[in-house]
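Subject: complex prediction, re-run

Hi both,

The earlier run crashed halfway through, so I resubmitted it with identical inputs.
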Amino acid sequence: ETGVTQTPRHLVMGMTNKKSLKCEQHLGHNAMYWYKQSAKKPLELMFVYSLEERVENNSVPSRFSPECPNSSHLFLHLHTLQPEDSALYLCASSHNRGPLDYNEQFFGPGTRLTVL
Amino acid sequence: LAKTTQPISMDSYEGQEVNITCSHNNIATNDYITWYQQFPSQGPRFIIQGYKTKVTNEVASLFIPADRKSSTLSLPRVSLSDTAVYYCLVGDMLGSGTYKYIFGTGTRLKVLA
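This time it finished cleanly. Structure:
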């Protein structure tokens, strides 16, 4: 596998379910990101891990819980979601020179999440 | 945070040159300008990045005036496959400030036959 992969590609869950989204990057990058993209809205940056430390959490509800066990893997744990959380969840990675560096991001194909 | 403003949509015909302008009036000294392309149900894809003057790669050119308060993405001879949403972003390359990586609403380009 090359680039950034995400699983599953599609997920349907009820509001009481617990599920996890997985992202894996095969690029040797040291930073990973979660974005949410709702219909007709711009991408919203949710979480940033740089050098395996969380450096950004943009006021995301606690029903979303990220986990970054190493620089190649990123998870988004979902619990008690709402229908308005239905969206495309995108993972990205980049090679940063420091915790707050800004550099070209490589995106995965996304997970299309539907909350019933 | 440097906010960006782009036209919501543009139409063009195959073979034409397309220029998409982005306004970023409060761009900071350390900020770079980056453009991404996104197709439906896919993640954004990096197109080009620059700091000042002109940058050119195999797919596009980026023109940045001296005051850096705007930038123009130029796509030469577009084809139907260039139909996508194009995002302009500004961000701090030196990591000296708060993490900034804000996608705006983007410009929806439609290329017609």
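Chain A has a mean pLDDT of 88.

- K.
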